[in-house]
Fold this protein.
Amino acid sequence: MSDVDDVRAAHSRLTAAFSLETVPPVRARRDRLRQLARALRTRRADLVDAVSRDFAPRAEIETLTAELVYLQEGIRHTVRHLSGWARARTSRVVRPLPGRTDIWFEPKGAVAILSPWNYPLQLALMPLVAAVAAGNRVLLKPSERSPASAAALDRLIGEVFPPDEVAVVTGGADVAEAVADLPWGHLLFTGSTATGRRVAAAAAATLTPVTLELGGRNPAIALPGADPAIHAPMIAWGAWLNAGQTCVAPNHLWVPEGTQDRWAEALLDRAECFGPRDYTAMIDDGAGRRLRDMLAEAEAGGAQVRHARTGVPFPPAVLTDVPSDCALLREEIFGPVLPILTYADPEEVLRAEAGNAPLAAYVFDRDAGQARAFLGRIRSGGGAVNATILHLAAHDLPFGGIGTSGQGAYHGVRGFREFSHERAVFSAARGPWTRLLLPPYPRMMRKLLRRMAS
């Protein structure tokens, strides 16, 4: 376990090691990322076991697909494109100032990553890949709620990176606060909106730029043309993946009036396909108690709660007739519970979601064009048509929130640029033309400027 002094020591070591003269060339950065990919392959069993111990258990298939396979694909994408991303952008200028312009992509320096527990490998290492690709020194602070994963990350990072390139600190909220209080070239935080506000306030004191990946009440919307037999399986997968402990999981489902029972049955049919080997537990007792309290409140208010018949500790549940003032409809659920809401006209959904700024929104219809058009009328960080969550699997798409669901984005080239300073440089062309800028101004110059300003 690290303490506040360890954070300060790591910060001093990383900042002292950084300068523009010591930025590794692109080839060296690509080699480091390949080493990280090899270490992930070598330590696969150790990493899967560590994550499962934290969740007690975590379904192996989910750790493989949503974390390790995803990371390998993300690293391959970055290595493949990094040379092009890092190349300076150059153009020649004739008017109004003859010369050449360049944009140089330079690292921001020593940067920090505060990662969460729900995907403890992916959400720590994907931003790290972007930061290393951009040439930065990195401090990583994993969540204390996944201590086995944090220890496994510490071992993994120590095998690949020297301590003056990447450092890992572990510990509780005091360690995370110490990280946020220090001046960094950039700080990326993934977690709740409430904690994100505190991180942003701390970073503002040192003028540290931030990327905030926060939560959100993500709607899934079944338009009148949607079919439970076709579309419920994808909604169910997104809702029950990682037992709903996913920042882009559907938080509630809108369906046409009179169809809620059909949708509920279709969703539960899919939920009952999850056996103990393929289903993840709630991260800890506190998370389970919170969710049970939310369910009890909704049921006391008249909601009909239907649990999937499957032999897991906290089975998936769907709710109908949900009271509008209950916590399930006020807060991000972050568990295997999906309220079903109804509408008479799709315009009602737009009005109900108008004040929401979720991390994702999902629209379903047999007519994909209708679904795309409707999605275009909803504000969200990202989204999908006839799918859930899968927009994250496209490494050339930016991932980020808007409003209360976050600011900034990463993944692919967007991640490289998030951790880069785009430095603007002008090189003046040779010749006497610069004299025209200096007083005393000739009559010709005044006449030219008047013409250009008209």
Notes: The chain is about 45% helix and 20% strand. The first helix runs from residue 4 to 17.
